[in-house]
Amino acid sequence: MNKHLIAVITTFFVTLNLVGCSSQPNNNTATNQEKNLDNNLQQPIQLANRVVALTPLSADLIYNLDKSKLLGVPSGRYTDVVAQAKFAELPRIGGRGNINLEKIVALKPDLVIGSETFQSQALNRLKELGIKTISHETRNWQDLKNLTVDLAGRIGADPKSILDKYASFISQIPENGKSVVVLVSIQPTLSPNKNSWSGDLLERFNYKNVTADLQANTRFQGYLTLSQEQILAANPEKIFIMESDTVNPDDFKKLPFWNQLKATRNNQVYIFHHDGLISPTSINTVEKVTNQLRQTAF
Q1: Which strand (E) or helix (H) includes residue 133?
Q2: How crowded is residue 186: how many other Cβ atoms within 10 Å of its Cβ?
Q3: Domain stops at, among 169, 190, 224
Q4: Listed residues 121, 147, 169: the one ending a domain
Q5: Which residue in 88, 125, 188, 269 is a FRET match for 54, CA 20 to 30 A apart?
Q6: What is the pLDDT of residues 116-129, one digit of tens each?
Q7: For residues 204 and 143, is the Cβ–Cβ distance under 8 A?
Q8: The overall pTM is greater than 0.70
């Protein structure tokens, strides 16, 4: 009986020992898997060396981060007029919503950057063709910083000098507190709320945007259509009107209620270019609009 009991006990401990030994390789396997995962996470991302930009902002950022990586840029006022000298040697791949896909494919890019709102269809087609794409929209200051850091990481560049510039652009902000309405267009009379690039800028420079909290009634969530009654009721201390290829600032003065506004009577109407207050098309335009907002506040 004792011998049988001893045999059972011995078998139990031998089995327990074998189970313990068999679990050791599993622990090693798990440890190895964790090490492999860590190694994968530490592996550098595949850097892009051949970049096509479909928006002026992405073209300008890539140019300033490492212009040797830039293969093609969009057509438009910024690339063809304002900064024509910078981009003179680069092929144009079409305008905002008229992208030449064949031309892009022929350039053999390893990264294409475009607008989430206006170029998603072209980006999806390029993705189907096996080309890496990313989309962006710059609706506020943080979006601009995030895009700059993201693009820098994708091409292996250092964004610090650009980020330092951004910081300088929003330094020395006056107390301000003046009420303002931004009129982007005439027919319809569009104005930005706080969910837009211009709305965010106004807030940063301590303007009281009278349309900040109004709900957008257009397909663009950052912009709403204002009625004559709404503008007269707001009667802001300052009015910012737009200038662009399609908007003449003088046309705002033809609005039937124009001379009834406090800002017009007090000569507090200021002209801003679309490329800057409505859309951050380049680092230079961002600098220009922030300087103008600062000076206008004073």
Answers
A1: strand 133-136
A2: 15
A3: 169
A4: 169
A5: 188
A6: 888 999 999 999 99
A7: no
A8: yes
